[in-house]
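Page 42, continued from yesterday. The earlier attempt failed because a stray header line got pasted into the input along with the sequence. Redoing it now with the clean sequence only.
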Amino acid sequence: MTPNTAIFSGEICSRPRPRRPWSPWVWTVLGGLAIPLWATWPALSLKTHEIPALECLAIVFLVAWLASSPLERAVIPAESEPPSWQWWIPAAAFALAEAGSAGFFLLATRHIAAAEANLIVYLWPGIVVCLGAVLGIFHLKLRHIAGIALGFIGAAILIGGGELSLSFVGIGLALLAGLSWALYCVLRLKWRGATGPLLARGFGIATFLCAGLHLLLEPTVLPTLGAAAAAAAVGIVPTAIANVAWDEGFRKGDSQLLAVMAYATPLCSALLLTVLGLESLTWRLLIGAVAIVAAGVMSRTDA
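This time it went through. Structure tokens are written below.
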């Protein structure tokens, strides 16, 4: 009789083998999957413009709430349900990061161009690495700093092209959008306790938050079938699946490399828009791609 079988009442019953733990490399690959998934948001959002912003976010987070719970339970090893104090703080932080990042970005675009706001938001990977170094999570070398700078330059080449404004309100709001997500990422690196389906709970909090703000600030619009389907797709792909992959991979894989490779999100977005015929290939796309790939190579912790 093998160690994984037992005889009960004349029958051989197989005992399930414990799942073999994944290596940090596998978790890094899983976290990296979030980058192309996040990049689908701009293409999908083109179909949601008829829906008021906060109403759209409420729909997106509601769908993400429903979709992320089974995803988290499939990825996270079985664990006892933690006490409420152990999950509500990171869940609330995630809700504020998701809703705050999107909300501050939308407010920033009322004062500065969307491309400029998007570029400022993409300071968040550098903020993550810098805060991580201050807190002792990362050990930075010169090549890591060069990788952060090169990644931001690549993102600037991809996103930029327009004139920059000097609206301090718009710049400040865009910085808050990037800071919201950066602070959550650092919190997740420090918060190691069992949290259960944290993202699903966070999406639930974000749903009620955005729905309440929508009822206070916006008129309600009945979306068309196409717009509702697009909002649901945003909730499933770049929100639920991407964030579950990022949250687990970022904590258990090479978080420093993933932070720098997040600069590839606008690259993937531009490539997708090009494939869909919504954007053309330009020299900016090629140069930005080379810079971002070089940044990732420089930022490998085992180099």
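Notes: The beta strands are 5-8, 11-14.
Reminder to self: strip header lines before submitting.
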